[in-house]
Structures are given as structure tokens and as C-alpha cells.
């Protein structure tokens, strides 16, 4: 992270700036909280997009070949759940390197 006082780049785990000694831990806590918020928002967004896409695809599959995957009435729900899981997986892929 960058020191708020002298703008030197320090490692993410640094407690103090190695250049000027400014305490960095407050900033670390803050940015972690906002990062976590962004992360969970992102995961929710991806999950919802996946669920909607899955639902639409399930309906489309039903329209083209009724009962192609499961019983017709379960297909959109099952695809929505699957889409949700895939969306969450993409969000996880995107964020797994952040801690
Ligand atoms: Zn500094």
C-alpha cells in the first residue's frame, strides 16, 4: 500500500512506512473493510446475473426441447441455481488473490 504521508509504496502487510515511519495499520484496516464490501457486492452481483442468465437459458432450453434436462417445470429453477453457482464461482475467481 502507499504511505499517506510520503507516498512510498510499502508491502501490504507493513505496519509502518519504511521511508518515514508513518503508521499504516489504520489505512490497512480501512481499505480491507472497503475491499470486503466491494467483494461481497461483486459476488452478489455475479450470482444474480448468473441466476438470471441461467433462468433465461433454462426457459429457452424448455422452449426448444421440452424436458431436455429435467422435468420441464424444474428446468428454469435448476438452471437459475446452477447459474447462481457459476456466477459466484466467477466472482470467487476474480477475487481469490485478494485477502
Ligand atoms: Zn511514508
Q: What would the keywords be for this entry?
A:
99 residues; mainly alpha; 2 helices; 62% helix; rod-shaped; binds zinc ion
Give an overview of the whole structure.
With 99 residues, this protein is mainly α. The chain has a domain at 34-95. The protein is 62% helix and 0% strand. It is built from 2 helices and no strands. The chain has helices at 25-64, 75-95. Helix 1 (25-64) packs antiparallel against helix 2 (75-95). The longest helix is centred in the middle third of the chain and has 40 residues, at 25-64. It is rod-shaped, with a radius of gyration of 22 Å. The protein starts with 24 loop residues before the first helix and ends with a helix.
Amino acid at each position: 500500500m502507499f504511505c499517506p504521508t510520503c507516498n512510498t509504496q510499502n508491502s501490504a502487510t507493513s505496519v509502518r512506512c519504511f521511508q518515514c515511519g508513518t503508521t499504516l495499520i489504520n489505512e490497512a484496516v480501512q481499505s480491507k473493510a472497503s475491499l470486503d464490501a466491494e467483494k461481497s457486492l461483486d459476488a452478489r452481483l455475479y450470482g444474480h446475473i448468473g441466476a438470471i442468465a441461467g433462468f433465461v437459458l433454462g426457459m429457452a432450453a424448455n422452449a426448444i426441447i421440452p424436458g431436455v434436462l429435467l422435468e420441464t417445470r424444474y428446468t428454469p429453477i435448476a438452471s437459475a441455481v446452477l447459474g447462481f453457482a457459476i456466477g459466484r464461482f466467477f466472482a470467487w475467481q476474480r477475487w481469490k488473490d485478494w485477502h
